[in-house]
Design goal:
Distance between the termini: 150 Å
Organism: Thalassiosira oceanica
Shape: elongated
Protein name: DUF7495 domain-containing protein
Largest sheet: 3 strands, antiparallel
Helix content: 25-40%
Keywords: Membrane, Transmembrane, Transmembrane helix
């Protein structure tokens, strides 16, 4: 009897039984998943990895947002600083225009002073309210008779000290904004603030060199005894002469005289013997500084200290009606 070899059964051509070729895990068989579903499930990306990427992106996002906020704040600060600097420059330009011939003598001059003082200006006491200017009298008048003659015109001179709150505020404003000017110019601007004008030499010393000044000098003040006995007072140099025809150019226009800011000062006190004063020269009383210094080129501020330049004399009216049309240089 011939041996018969057993041959495994084969599937028809073109058909493959994946169930017999690839065993399925027991767990997948129990849930009824096909091999294809199982492969897709195993090849799917791990959701935990995607979650970790989001956390990684967030770690970089916060520093970036922080830098953006810092940049915006810095830009805003620079913008505010630039605006403040622009306003400060505008105020300085206005002050310079008023100082150097921007207004006529008879016009109302605006002094650019901040509404609220800052820095050193905050230490200056507030000034008292300005007194209204009395209306002009219908006829010339003079003060009560005294031993010293007084002007008969209606300029109503008034003494002030550089310790006045308005003057201190003006001076500090110039210092803080880098505006360089002379004390005479600041005195003129101070008089404008009081709605007055800087007086001329003939008002300060109506009787000329060697004689007492207006009303014998400034009135008594609480600090008068502590002031230096030598006192120079700035004055305005009038552009109008007694004979106006001699002060006309070829076109008939009034010739304006330059203001010598470092020389236009009158002595209302006493220059001691050690500094050139003597009985022969009345200790410099009512001497003009330009003449006293022998017309040299040295300004008074370079020779005499500020303690000898405390007083100012302001007038209620210009030195002459024609001066309203002239410009202070």
């Amino acid at each position: 009897m011939a041996d018969i070899e057993s041959t495994p059964a084969t599937a028809p051509a073109g058909e493959v039984d994946l169930s017999s070729a690839t065993p399925r895990p027991a767990g997948l068989q129990e849930v009824g998943m096909s091999n294809e579903d199982a492969m897709n499930t195993m090849n799917a990306p791990d959701p935990r990895q995607s979650h970790q990427k989001c956390l990684c992106l967030g770690a970089y996002t916060w520093p970036i947002l922080g830098f953006l906020v810092l940049f915006v704040m810095l830009a805003a600060a620079l913008g505010l600083s630039g605006e403040a600097l622009s306003r400060s420059n505008e105020a300085v330009d206005t002050a310079k225009a008023a100082l150097f011939g921007g207004k006529g003598v008879g016009e109302s001059t605006y002094i650019p002073v901040p509404n609220e003082p800052t820095g050193q200006a905050a230490l200056v006491p507030a000034s008292p309210p300005a007194e209204p200017t009395p209306p002009p009298s219908p006829r010339p008048q003079s003060d009560a008779p005294t031993d010293v003659p007084t002007p008969t015109h209606e300029q109503r001179p008034k003494w002030f000290q550089i310790l006045h709150a308005d003057y201190q505020k003006l001076s500090l404003f110039h210092d803080e904004n880098g505006v360089t000017t002379s004390q005479l110019a600041e005195a003129a601007l101070f008089c404008y603030q009081q709605e007055m004008f800087m007086c001329t030499y003939d008002v300060i010393c109506p009787n000329g060199k060697g004689n007492p000044p207006f009303k014998g000098g400034p009135p008594y003040t609480t600090n008068k005894d502590s002031l230096d006995e030598t006192q120079w007072v700035p004055y305005y140099r009038s552009n109008v002469h007694p004979n106006p025809q001699k002060e006309k150019d070829e076109a008939g226009k009034t010739i304006q005289l330059d203001q010598k800011e470092g020389k236009q000062w009158a002595q209302i006190g006493k220059i001691p013997d050690g500094k050139g004063g003597s009985e022969e020269n009345s200790n410099g009383l009512c001497w003009d500084y330009d003449e006293w210094s022998n017309y040299d080129a040295v300004n008074i501020e370079d020779v005499w200290s500020e303690e000898t330049r405390v007083w100012m004399l302001c007038c209620s009216d210009p030195a002459d009606e024609n001066e309203k049309d002239l410009v202070v240089e």
